[in-house]
Design brief:
Layout: H1 2-18, H2 20-24, H3 29-43, E1 48-51, E2 55-56, E3 59-60, E4 62-63, E5 77-78, E6 83-87, E7 92-101, H4 109-118, E8 129-135, E9 140-147, E10 150-151, H5 153-162
Parallel strand pairs: 7-8
Antiparallel strand pairs: 1-6, 2-3, 4-5, 6-7, 8-9, 9-10
Helix pairs in contact: 1-3
């Protein structure tokens, strides 16, 4: 995971160098997410990088009923990760990234639960790693790493120390 997280760090460094205009004007989270995905794509050659992507091949990515991540679905819980690094044509899911602005004062619970679910090894589409990033105007103000359906304290500290 260190290799993937190192590439994410490089992506974030480039994002903050190139995207001052949108950061200084406090544009929306979706704008930031898209621009960060552009940088991530440069550091993950051979992988597909998508925003708000809810498909796994021809299937919709659904969490089991009764899951704690809320949506309006009646058949299951559809999931739209902010950014994913994956292979569209085969079930290979490397990285799921949830992005928050530091000015977002909504509770973190939804994003945390989403990353726990997306990295849950009991689900057929589990991502190898999930990352929650809190973006400030001049740098990352928070970062957590999720592996195996739970927060990975050592990797979270490793990532936070390098941001």
């Amino acid at each position: 995971m260190h290799s993937e997280l190192s590439r994410l760090i490089s992506s974030l460094q480039e994002f903050y160098m190139r995207e001052r205009f949108i950061l200084e004007r406090d544009l929306g989270e979706r704008t930031l997410t898209h621009r960060l995905a552009v940088q991530i794509e440069r550091h993950f050659p051979g992988w597909d990088v998508d925003c708000d992507y809810s498909r796994l091949g021809d299937r919709t990515m659904l969490l089991p009923r009764g899951s704690i991540v809320s949506t309006d679905d009646t058949l299951g819980k559809s999931v739209y990760p902010d950014i994913i690094v994956h292979r569209r044509s085969v079930p290979k899911h490397l990285l799921a990234v949830e992005v928050r602005k530091s000015t977002n004062h909504q509770p973190l619970q939804h994003d945390l639960h989403k990353l726990m679910a997306l990295t849950d090894p009991h689900l057929w589409f589990a991502f190898a790693c999930g990352v929650l990033l809190t973006l400030g105007r001049t740098g990352v103000t928070g970062a957590e790493v999720y592996v195996g359906g739970r927060r990975e304290a050592e990797l979270s500290a490793w990532l936070a120390d390098r941001l």
